[in-house]
From TrEMBL:
It comes from Geodia barretti. This is nicotinate phosphoribosyltransferase. Its EC number is 6.3.4.21. InterPro entries: Aldolase_TIM, NAPRTase_C, Nic_PRibTrfase-Fam, Nicotinate_pribotase-like_C. It is an enzyme of class 6 (ligase). Pathway: Cofactor biosynthesis; NAD(+) biosynthesis; nicotinate D-ribonucleotide from nicotinate: step 1/1. The keyword Kinase does not apply.
Length: 260
């Protein structure tokens, strides 16, 4: 539900009623278009009508104002109206820090709608990256510019997993080096000759995997402020590879000079 939907009707109460008629089993009312407290009252009125018809209001949404105070008042009004199952949602330029603050202060909010700060990278609005070739036709290649040296060859990532199933750290190594004891390999072939090798997971499966993977990080690594860094290092084999690449480059340069 958008504010434009509500303003297209003669009254907020009429807008809520029309929306409930269209979505009787999945309605969330936006209550701050005119006056939030009055909007909550109108939502309660329509919610009671819905109940008489065998349906339930899913939630109300706060989109402006003092979300802490309004959420507490909204929860109180809904409970007093015998609508404890109606959730209180909040939105409006929120990010993870504001959400943490609201919850720590006791906001009675059941869910948050985050749009802008999910669709954009507000704290780091650019990604400085460039393609660097590390192998060509089986031959390792590298860049030797000062402070911009590259690690040659195809890579594999080995992840250490503790006995408790928690992730303990990653090692970036070469694809042909032995699997490190106590680790699992993260990279596998997913495309060949332009064709996918496995069936793409569903959105629900991806969501479940993401949640499960995050759960295997320590709490100190997931805290919003001053989190512990996840340990990542380069294997000894991969660290020695640039020296081999430099030696090959020097040999090529020497041969060129001899030819001259």
């Amino acid at each position: 539900m958008a504010h434009s939907f509500i303003t297209s009707f003669d009254s907020e109460l009429e807008a809520f009623g029309a929306y409930a008629a269209s979505f009787p089993d999945n309605s969330t009312f936006l209550v701050d278009t005119y006056d939030t407290i009055e909007g909550i009252r109108n939502a309660i009125t329509v919610a009671k009508r819905m109940r008489e018809q065998g349906h339930e209001l899913n939630a109300i949404r706060l989109d402006s104002g003092d979300l802490l105070a309004l959420s507490i008042e909204a929860r109180s009004m809904l409970d007093a109206a015998s609508l404890p199952e109606v959730q209180v949602l909040a939105s409006g330029g929120l990010d993870e820090f504001q959400i943490e603050s609201l919850l720590s202060l006791g906001a009675t909010i059941d869910g948050f709608g985050v749009g802008t700060n999910v669709g954009t990278s507000a704290d780091y609005p650019w990604l400085d990256c460039v393609y660097k070739m590390v192998e060509y036709d089986g031959r390792p290649t590298m860049k030797l510019s000062e402070d911009k040296e590259t690690l040659v060859g195809a890579k594999q990532v080995f992840r250490y997993v503790g006995e408790d199933g928690m992730y303990a750290g990653d090692v970036i190594g070469c694809t042909d080096e032995p699997v490190l004891e106590g680790t699992e390999m993260l990279l596998s072939e997913v495309m060949r000759d332009g064709r996918r090798l496995e069936v793409a997971p569903s959105l629900a499966e991806l969501q479940q995997r993401c949640s499960s993977e995050i759960g295997r990080l320590s709490d100190t690594q997931k805290q919003l402020r001053s989190p512990d860094e996840y340990p990542v290092r380069v294997s000894e084999r991969l660290q020695s590879a640039p020296a081999e690449g430099e030696a090959g480059h020097s040999a090529q340069v020497s041969q060129s000079r001899i030819a001259e």
